[in-house]
């Protein structure tokens, strides 16, 4: 990360390393945006769907379902995209299905995309869980290992083969988890026919959320010219009143190319420009990007327009791509987290992508509602527990100044076999994909490479050392962490992280019902971790389940009162420690969410301060009161708010 203590040369080296790292990733993953040279066609809506319920789940491949229309090889049902398929029907075998499901959609492609050979047509899947294979008109175009991150393939030549036919897109998705997937899981077959029906098996998972599956984010077709802006990397900093945007533009498909880069302010006025593919744009009287409640106008974004004039064997092209850019710095000391060289205290939440009916499906009304709730309660940050969220959510964070700890899907790494090379290599690949997608978001201030791994196991040291060093090499400008609930003295990865993140549930999983232990145990926790590592600490999870509407006084577990007291008792300790080295507190959880069925879960995890339908429990008001007070103390509230405030 950029540290204010370090001289300029360090920054230059960092930038060089970041741009080198960007080169190591074979291609870019710019968010598809319309421009004068690019079109986007969204394929959200109804797709045809069939789950392959054959005993080995392989019938679709044996019978090549991708070769013809899905409805010609068997019955299909309507399936909305994006959405998890699990909660869409009344069929319990589909809710709990494990194996391949098949989606299909026919698309009419604009004639100009076909006739213009200078147009590149790309299919992009925002995310599908977990393993996906994509065919266009029966020809496989790509496959992808992992949910939560986008993947794409060029399909122009296939579409052009028979322009009289609509373009048929088939996507097969498999939610089976193995010890090498992220998150890991395992399939257990049980053959005891006296107790279980023939062919019975279960998927064991080591994480606490429902393994929703399907096409979770929008599928798009988009165009670029055949010579195009493939990637942009920006790293920002500032000195006094002058901002600096260090940038690099990567171009594909051109034999000759010239680039014009223009940085515009919010009103569209040019503040800096260049004709080099990489360099530094200097912004006089810079408007820095500030977090929500730390400044009167948080989330200030410039627009960086990249205009490429290029030629290749076929023709001359102009490509235009505009990237929002927030100018800010991030650094850590042994006791502080600094944004723009000022101490930043995370008062925020952990979330899930989770809601009724949609499961993990992308949904704008839900996203906007969640941002309104975050702002209502005065939250300035969240962690993307326990996997990368949709990029559209990060764009909202950029615009609203909500600070993000960007977590990869490394959750539930509990089995010692998940520390082997195959798992590590996949984990490294996932970090590559995550950094490639999210590196330009001002809101993203830290990478989290895992949540609660078995970091006390001997192989964890090599595993996390490698993973954290790799992530720092990919992006030397941001701190790296993972979230621990291991014992401070046995945690193998802690020496390598920049910030210690700890989850703990005193008076819940430990000493249930004994609220009186919280002050002592939480205090001991902080003193132990800081004493050993001298690194800033975030309480990355704490909380208690509350079934909405369940009350008792004196408080008993699972009531709204108990949840309230747990929070208040923790806050008292946080208030002491934030004067020293505690740099944040993130409640578990923003909202109730679905889990597998089990004796500790009453239709899901109820640690939300909002219900799954986003109605506040008593705890939400406790947090609201606290977060606005913290903001009042530590930041500069926007003029349109007054404490105590109701937005
Ligand atoms: C934490 C996990 C989180 C769980 C939470 C809980 O990180 O995923 O949902 O416990 O049990 O340890 O509520």
Radius of gyration equals: 25 Å
* Assembly type: single chain
Shape: globular
Associated small molecules:
beta-D-glucopyranuronic acid
Could you name the ranges where pLDDT drops below 50 across 5 or more consecutive residues? 1-14
Work out the helicity level.
10-25%
Count every helix, treating DSSP H or I runs of 4 or more residues as helices. 12
Give average pLDDT, whole number. 94
The largest beta-sheet arranges its strands as 25-26-27-28-29-30-31-32
Count of extended strands: 32
Q: For the terminal residues, how far apart are their CA atoms?
A: 35 Å
Largest sheet: 8 strands, parallel, barrel
Task: Describe this protein's structure.
This protein has 647 residues and is an alpha+beta fold. Helix content is 22%, strand content 29%. The protein contains twelve helices and 32 strands. Helix 11 runs parallel beside helix 12. Beta-D-glucopyranuronic acid binds next to loops.
What's the layout of helices and strands?
Layout: H1 8-24, E1 40-42, E2 45-51, H2 59-62, E3 77-81, H3 92-95, E4 100-107, H4 111-115, E5 119-125, E6 128-129, E7 131-136, E8 139-145, E9 151-154, H5 156-161, E10 167-174, E11 185-189, E12 201-205, E13 214-215, E14 219-225, E15 228-239, E16 242-252, E17 256-264, E18 270-274, E19 278-283, E20 302-311, E21 316-325, E22 330-332, E23 337-339, E24 342-343, E25 346-350, H6 364-377, E26 381-383, H7 391-400, E27 403-407, H8 421-438, E28 444-451, H9 460-474, E29 480-484, E30 500-503, H10 518-533, E31 537-541, H11 560-577, E32 582-587, H12 618-634
Parallel strand pairs: 25-26, 25-32, 26-27, 27-28, 28-29, 29-30, 30-31, 31-32
Antiparallel strand pairs: 1-14, 2-3, 2-4, 4-10, 5-9, 5-14, 6-13, 7-8, 7-10, 11-12, 15-16, 16-19, 17-18, 17-20, 20-21, 22-23, 23-24
